Structures are given as structure tokens and as C-alpha cells.
Amino acid sequence: MVRGLIRAARCRAALASGRPPGMRRLPPAAGLLVAWGAVLAATAWGQVGDIPPARDANPRSAGATGSTTEPRATAPELVDLLFNPRAPLAPRLRALETLEKAGTSDPQVMPALIRMLQLGPLTPEGDPDARQLRERGLRALAALGPEAELAAPLLMRMVRDPRESESFRRLAIEALGALQGKGAIAIGALCEALEFDASPEARVAAAEALARIGEPAVASMSAYLRHRDSALRGRIAASLGLLSSEAAQAQTRGPLLDALRDPDETVRLHAAESAWKLYRAAAPEADTAIPLLASDQRPTRFRAMRLVVDLPQLEARHVQALEALRDHPRSEVRKIAAKTLQRANRQEPGTSQGPVPPGTGPG
């Protein structure tokens, strides 16, 4: 950077002393702006500063082929650029993106990303460049998935640190969930966030992260289905639909089907949606969803209708329950029941009706 400033200043002096006839002398302020712009442009291309461009291993190859392709930077050069506070933000972000694409196949990637986490916690009044870099580093760790398991202790510390902003806590939670089975060490920290984090978004992210960890977290999630807080039970019931492994799905089947009888209708609805995703449990799900068509909450009625019309077919008791709703005191409930029966009658047995067409919802 210093060498670049010196070269730019010398160019300015030469222009000022030996300018062609008719050329106006640059004002001092304009000259400094020109020099600083040249330094920033050169730094962005890796031509000045502390990071020299990578050299071609065979200098003759470029001349022989006539190629002018710029040599690619090496991992050490990218890491140096990433943590160079004098470099502009854009090339530092590009360096981070390149390191993310390299993945853990390069031994310098994980140490660099872990070092990026150690830039915080950052206050809202802190360095905006550092905030963007740290946020991008957290997203890179989530993209690496189970390969980022070495960062788990630092991510857990971020989740538990009240000085961290809500967005950084949530990104750290998502990165822990991306570890999948290798994130079992983080179950305790995620359970703490699920219960006690001040941010609703972070609590939802913690429930989803537990589901993505999978089988190691099933016991904790099943226990939360009996928690006294209905909102927490609802978050867990909704996140169980994200379970991907068959072993985890088998372990949670009983507790999830029990949640279909939860005293809170929102919990029952979440449980019905997850049970349908995991097990295609048509009859228990319909037993839960059809009574919710008469809910006092309009979003609950609409979601229940979407569940019912997506069933492969309705059993006789379900049709009778829908017929009874056609005499409901509320006109909206009567309309929902009539439309649901109409779709069920048109639907062929053993097929799925699919999503509700736009404009056919309640109201």
C-alpha cells in the first residue's frame, strides 16, 4: 500500500512539473483524490499492498500461447487479503467466497473461517466491514455442512453469548444445524436457545437445527413435546417434519402422533402437518385437521383445509364430520366444508389432490 502511494505521488509530481503546453496544473486536492483512487483500484486487483500476485510456474507458457490470463491467487494470499484491514471490502469478500468454494480440501480454509468468528462479538456501532465479513463467514460455515465440525465450540459460544446480536446468534444456530449428526455436541446449547433466547426467530431456528442434527436430538425433541409452554411444543412439533433419517422418524412417531391430541390447537395443527410429511398418516391427520376447520383462527382454518384436501381419500367418518360442518353457524366454516367435500368427491382414490388453487381459501 505504501509503495503504491509513493508511485502515485511521483506520477502526480511528474505531471505537475513537465506537463504539455496548455495542460492545466491539477489542484492539490484533486491530485490526492486521483492518487488514492489509483491505489484502491490497484489494491483491488492485487497489484499493490502486502499481497503480491501469484507467479506463473512456467513464464514461457504465456508468451508461447499468447495468453494474457491473470495468475490465480494462492490460498495463503487469499487469507492474507481476507484479514488485511487496509484492503477494500469487495476483494476481501471475493477472497472469502473463493476459500469457501475450495472447502476443507485446503487445510487453510477452516482456520481462516474460525479466525473470522473471533472478530466478535461486534456492536452495531462497530466496524461495518468486519460485520459483513463475519456474517459471510458464518454462512460459509453453514454451506460446508458437516465438514465444519471443528468450528462447533466457537459457534456454541456465539449462541450462548448475550453480547452477540440476534442475527449472529441465529446464523450460528443455523451453522450448528448444518453439522447434522456431527452436531450432537451442540444439542445442549441449542436447547438453551430454544427455551431462553430473547429472539423468536432464534428460538425457531434452534428447533429446526435440532431436527437437522437428527437422531442424536430426537430424545430431547420428544421430551419438549410434553413441555408446559405451548409455543415451545408447537415449534418442536413443526420442526419434526424436517427429520430426514428413517431411524429418527421411527423414534419420534409415537410422541408426534400423541401430539395430535395436544390441548392447544396450534400444536395439534403443527403435529398433523409434520405427521403427514413424515408418515403420510392420513387417518390420524384427518381426525385432527377436520375439527380445526371450525377454528376461531382464520389461518388455522385455511391450513387445516389444505391438509384435508391433500389427503389421498377421505374415510366415511371424515365425510360425516365434514357434512356436519355444513350446518355450522359461521358461514365461512360452511363454505370451507362444502369446498372440501367438493374436492374430495372429485378426487380419485389413491391420488393426491395437490395444493389448494389460488383464490379458493377461506373468506
Care to give the gist of this entry?
The chain is mostly helical. The protein has helices at 2-17, 28-44, 59-65, 75-82, 89-102, 109-117, 128-144, 152-160, 166-177, 187-196, 200-213, 218-224, 230-239, 246-258, 265-279, 282-292, 298-309, 316-325, 331-346.
Detailed description of the structure:
This protein is mainly alpha-helical and 363 residues long. It has a domain at 264-363. 63% of the residues lie in helices and 0% in strands. Helix 4 packs across helix 5. The termini are far apart. Mean pLDDT is 78; it is low at 1-6, 19-24, 28-36, 38-69 and 348-363.
Q: Report the radius of gyration as a whole number of Å.
A: 30 Å
Q: What is the terminal separation in angstroms?
A: 65 Å
Structural class: mainly alpha
SS elements, strand count: 0
Weakly predicted, low-confidence segments: 1-6, 19-24, 28-36, 38-69, 348-363
Percent of sequence in beta strands: under 5%
- Overall mean pLDDT stands at 78
Q: Helical segment tally?
A: 19
Describe the global form.
Answer: elongated
Helix content: 55-70%
The SSE order reads: HHHHHHHHHHHHHHHHHHH
Sheet having the most strands: none
